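Anyone able to model this chain together with FNR?
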Amino acid sequence: MLTELAARARARLDPAHWDFFAGGAGDERTLRANEEAFQRLRLLPRVLRATGPRDLRTTLFGTELSAPLLVAPTAFHRLAHPDGELATARGAAAAGTVLVVSMAATTPVEDIAAAGGPLWFQLYPQPDLEFTAAVVRRAERAGCRALVVTVDSPVFGRRERDRRNGFTDLPAGLVCEHLRDGTGRVRDIVMDADLGWERIDWLRGVTGLPIVLKGLLHPADALLAVEHGVSAVLVSNHGGRQLDGAVATVDALPAVVKAVGGQVPVLLDGGIRCGADILAALALGAGAVLVGRPVLWGLAAAGADGVRQVLDLLREDLDRALALAGARRPADLTGDLVAARC
Ligand code: FNR
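re: yes, here you go
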């Protein structure tokens, strides 16, 4: 469904930048597994019961979304399109959903906020606690409504395509805007191998924003996350860009949902490419899903309009899938609608 947009994006992008966006870690087993796991699922639809209007709206932390579909945080949008994150924010706002702004964005969060639309902010906690707290305060002041803390990145995944292409630095003129410190100097982003649960506790003292823990797969970690007071967990393997060989996210989802036991919402990203994928994730217990690469394809192909197109297409496809599966609302979806894996 999104393949034509991906092809248009590819044609427009510098091949090294396409590889940066499309690629994963290692042999890209997990990257492929995310999509394949959805393709292996088969649905068991109900009939004659979903009469009346359908309603996809979903509320998370007090924000109403047009559907249980958000834009995942991804780095360097100005590599994809000159309008960068501003275009992504406009597209997400037009589609009625949240953009999760990346810590590695090439546009400052204050400018992205001015584009309108609800934002969350994704944080890679830095070893410098003062700097980390300052970034969180910046995101709060800009109006971000949740803090998404990425915890699957104690080191960088090994990205073979980037190594092959020699893609190590942003082109002149582009920087990670959230790595600027008080002096205007732009720091290097640090993947902190010393990040532990105590830092999550510390962050809860730094901000009153809901904290979403992004990048867990193991049910024991989901339980710990709840014990440490997070407001949601996000089942993610970073789109196959960190631990190659990690389980596909939709395969990890049921055990996490079981462990969390409804105490906080469970979100999922990785491999969502059509309405049936979203439907399956929701039926298996996700409260909402996020999409990464498809939004980048829309952005590269057609800027804000392209982002909106991708999100509208996925939302409309979910609406159709709901009708065909005999459901009116996301809340109607139950695990029995996922029949089998083939
Ligand atoms: C990402 N992802 C990511 N995650 C994060 O927490 N901070 C980041 O800066 C980035 N950057 C990033 C760049 C690119 C190019 C990609 C493809 C991904 C991971 C992202 O949030 C999400 O987990 C995956 O993209 C979801 O998988 P799909 O939808 O791309 O299959």
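The first helix runs from residue 3 to 12.
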